[in-house]
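tool_call: predict_structure(chain=1)
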Amino acid sequence: MPELRDKPLLTLIEAGGVNDMPVIVPPADTSEVLAEAIKTVKAAGYHIRKPRKQMQRTRKRVGPTYVCEFADGAVTRMSVFTSLEKLDWERGERLSRAAYQSRWQMRARAQYRKLNGKPCPVDLIAPVPPAIISERFEQDGVVLAQRNGGDVTVGGGL
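tool_result:
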């Protein structure tokens, strides 16, 4: 039978584990035996690694971008979740109007703080956004479709 010091740690574990060693070893020698076994295992190239979960994106790019120009010259750009075959114009308009109102409220609150030096005590109700004069869907720099007033022009597409 080979010496206990010649057996690698994995063999010791398979033979019954560290606590139930097949050969009786005095307690003083146990720590030396284990240290020697660990060195042998590391020299053999065994490593314990936990696999890491990697985040994988299901899509390489985001949905089409809705670009809207209002009558006062303000422009909003919104990423809209919609299919490329059937563009959702109403959703883009709703999101742009909400962005316009949110932008107005942020500016109004900033002006109030600038004048009074403290947070605005009341919620400011944003005015109704002006009319939309042009709107378009684009993706990766390509115009998919465009509306000027009520006319729809279909672009190059994908």
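agent: Strands lie at 65-70, 75-79, 132-139, 142-148, 151-154. Proceeding to next step.
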